[in-house]
Amino acid sequence: MTKSDKLLNALAKAVNAGGGIHSATELAFMLGLPYDPAFRKFLADCVNKGLLRRVMKGLYESAITPPEPETAIYKIIKKLRSGVLNYISLESQLSHTGDISQVVMGRVTVVTKGRSGCFDTPYGVIELTHTKKPVEKIAPNLYYDPDIKMYRAHKAQAIADLKHCQRNLHMLES
């Protein structure tokens, strides 16, 4: 079995287990190979052959068994800032709950305990906004959304985040 075949086999198994977006180091681990320049060249070759798609720097998906398009962006968010609290808030959450009339398309606004940043992916733009608030103050105002496997802010928290970030409040319905 070639290295490319082993990669496709590992990716197919990962999709069955709920995966779909993988870091380059995870792919090396799945194949039992060291993450070194030769492996990075192998990944670039797989992208050029159309076996993998680079969704952003260091993150890949299988071109043959890609993740569900509806949830792929949330998987990318979790890979971007793993190990810290991330939750959907600001305009994305208020649009989701119907508290603003505008439908946010092609962008997800996320509040994170990690670094801020804006990332362009094939599934849309991910806007991460850092918060200094302690987790103990934020956690009671969040709920888990099993469809996206991430936390979301309750309306009051999303509005508080909007005010804290000094974002446009004119779009609020009430």
From TrEMBL:
InterPro entries hit by this protein: AbiEi
Source taxon at top rank: Bacteria
Name of this protein: Transcriptional regulator, AbiEi antitoxin, Type IV TA system
